[in-house]
Design goal:
The chain is of the alpha+beta class. About 70% of the residues lie in helices and about 10% in strands. The chain contains ten helices and four strands, in the order H-H-H-E-E-H-H-H-H-H-E-E-H-H. About 30% of the residues are buried.
């Protein structure tokens, strides 16, 4: 097996234009795994609880109160005793537009509950994607280590044969053997890293099927990147569809409604009731209505001021988050542009270095290169090769994360 053949095998790639999704786990499988993960199930339970609390807010906590009083009346002149009963039914009522504010606040709470659940699905999908890419990265390093080991074994065999024929020195043979030992150690390290990555992926997300997909051509990655919306449009879409930001906006709106409700609470709600009484052993019957109103004090005013401060704090935090997320997507977009161009250059450099290493092998066979030069050229070719593949994978990861954030792939948020 020649160096050129090994390099061509390692660099095998699909045709440009292959869909991005063919390099990622199948969407139906991802949906099943993500929706079944403990984090997503916990978010679903939290959403259901918050929806029920929103119903409580809308209907209000007020309840009917029934009162029953039984007493004995004693009259001294003439001496008589009477059994008397008082029965009443009372309930607080929401006045001053409070019921409408509670309904609006409940609506905001329902929106927040759904957004929080969607955000949990999205963040779980992002984590799965990153673990998947990390597994691909360790696969590449392992493939590269195995290729280097095969090259080192070939070189060691060649050096041993030439040493027996007296064509090279013992030093050259020792250098070849040391290179073989280094390649074996590198393979063991790569295997350990891949085992750890596979364990993290498969234990965190049981049900994901491992697959070693070939990388797309860097030119295709560049074209796919250029197919994204322009920066301003991409930024707008990202901010509009970002669950974290929308959740912050919804929570800020809910807290503002809560502040308005606390302000309205400075006008206390009355408690209305009806009652009936049976006095003097039924000789007198009474039917009436009652109303009681708490007297507002500094407590309600302080509650209103605190709620207004909380709402302002939430709104300022949302504004800061919007600025931060906008800067983040612009930085990621700009960085990907440069990384895509760098991946093309590194890929070209890797091919050139591989050709140089192949020529060095032929020169060594003719006695024109030393063993040190041959090992150095092969090592540089291997390093350039893995650098090219990792650069392509870095572009792929950044592109996939942006498309995931724009809901262009794996769009199954509920």
């Amino acid at each position: 097996l020649t160096l050129q053949g090994l390099c061509l095998l390692t660099m095998a790639q699909p045709q440009p234009g292959a869909p991005l999704l063919t390099l990622l786990p199948p969407a139906p499988q991802v949906r099943t795994v993500v929706l079944g993960s403990p984090a997503t199930r916990a978010a679903l339970a939290q959403r259901d609880g918050q929806l029920r609390r929103a119903d409580i807010t809308e209907s209000g906590p007020a309840e009917f109160t029934a009162r029953l009083s039984q007493q004995n009346r004693q009259v001294s002149d003439p001496a008589e005793r009477y059994s008397e009963t008082l029965l009443s039914l009372e309930r607080p009522v929401r006045w001053w537009g409070k019921a409408g504010l509670d309904a609006d606040q409940a609506g905001a709470s329902r929106t927040s509950a759904r957004l929080a659940y969607a955000d949990a699905i999205h963040e779980t999908s992002r984590d799965l994607l990153q673990l998947w890419i990390e597994t691909l990265r360790t696969d590449m390093r392992l493939d590269n280590a195995q290729t280097n080991l095969a090259l080192a074994q070939e070189l060691d065999r060649l050096a041993a044969a030439r040493l027996r024929q007296g064509e090279i020195s013992q030093l050259d043979a020792s250098l070849a053997q040391a290179e073989l030992q280094r390649a074996q150690a590198a393979q063991d390290q790569a295997r350990a890293a891949r085992s750890a990555a596979v364990a993290r992926l498969t234990r965190t997300y049981p049900g994901i099927t491992l697959a070693q997909a070939p990388l797309p051509d860097p030119v295709w990655l560049q074209a796919r990147l250029e197919a994204l919306p322009a920066l301003q449009e991409l930024r707008q879409q990202y901010l509009e569809r970002n669950h974290q930001l929308n959740l912050g906006r919804s929570e800020a709106a809910r807290l503002r409604l809560l502040a308005q409700r606390a302000d309205r609470d400075q006008w206390p709600d009355p408690t209305l009731g009806i009652y009936t009484a049976n006095e003097r052993a039924g000789a007198e019957r009474i039917i009436g209505v009652s109303i009681s109103v708490p007297l507002s004090g500094r407590l309600r005013q302080n509650h209103a001021m605190a709620a207004a401060a909380d709402a302002q704090n939430a709104e300022d935090r949302v504004h800061q988050l919007e600025l931060s997320l906008g800067a983040d997507i612009e930085a990621r977009y700009s960085s990907l542009q440069h990384l895509a161009r760098a991946a093309i250059s590194i890929d070209t450099a890797a091919l050139t270095q591989q050709q140089a290493a192949d020529k060095s092998r032929k020169a060594y066979a003719l006695g024109e290169h030393s063993m040190t030069e041959l090992i150095q050229n092969r090592r540089l070719a291997a390093e350039q090769l893995i650098s090219a593949r990792l650069a392509q994978l870095e572009v792929l990861e950044g592109l996939a994360l942006i498309e995931l954030d724009l809901h262009m792939i794996w769009d199954f948020d509920e």
